[in-house]
Amino acid sequence: MSYLSGGQELSLISSVWHESVAPKALDCMASGEPETVQTFTQAVAVDSGKRLALDGRVYTVFRSDDPRIGVIAEIGDGGVMLPLTVESQVTGERQLINAGKFSYGLRTRVRLVALEKLPAGVIAFPGLARLSWQGMKVKGQGSYTGASIGSISGTTLEVKAAETCKLGYPSKVALKKIMMGDLPTVGSSVAAGSFQLTVNCGANTPGYTMGLSVYDPTALGGGVGSNNVNLVINGAVASGYGLQLLNAGKPMELGPPSNNIIGSTAAGGDVLNKTIDVRYVRTLPNTVPGKGQAMISVTLIHN
């Protein structure tokens, strides 16, 4: 199994579910009369304390016999597979059995999860001896035997070093000239121009969601929380004019990247091109005329 290092904590090592079927996970013997039985499955593996949201479901991440690698699991006795969690048991269907021995099968499938960033190289994964336990929830006079199920065999993981993604951007952007009358009131705005950002990810990168961390070096605290970048005119920071950077038509907020998601890249190498529009905005009643300049600090963040 191959896996790219450089992924964030709780990134999936397994690209698909690994499934096994236990044809005799539970045996029970009726007392001579038909009985209704219902099984349950509960986790016995150690909870790592971490949770993973995947496809609209929340999974308990269990510890394996390697502290760097965790496991998520699903259990099912038919077509529906349900997450195995420490918060609740997985209850099977109620079934009527006649006198005699009854063998109850169960499907189990697992995926491996990185509990930390894994270094490049080969890891001998030892597996997991016990994942869950199955027993009977409803029984009459019959006897039954519970069973430990879902052990995970060891395997070899080849951890490949992930390449990085590089952000390309222009060092300077020339904006169009406007007249003072184009911004007659505070809050009025007019288009100023645009520039292109290019994110180039190498062949061994996983898929990423890309965000921009943007700050204004001329503003107090980098301008965090503001939508405006100072337009400095003749040395005056409070010129009455500012710039707004537009991401898909919406002003970007200065600060961390959570509000400035610009797109995503696919695993295995991808290029993301993003156009950022710029507009002038009037910020004060009194303004300073002249030629201005603005500065921004941009950092690419991916997860």
UniProtKB/TrEMBL annotation:
GO terms for biological process: cell adhesion. Transmembrane segments: none annotated. Residues 156-299 form the Fimbrial-type adhesion domain. GO terms for cellular component: pilus. Pfam families: Fimbrial. InterPro entries: Adhesion_dom_fimbrial, Adhesion_dom_fimbrial_sf, Adhesion_dom_sf. This is Fimbrial-type adhesion domain-containing protein. It comes from Pseudomonas chlororaphis.
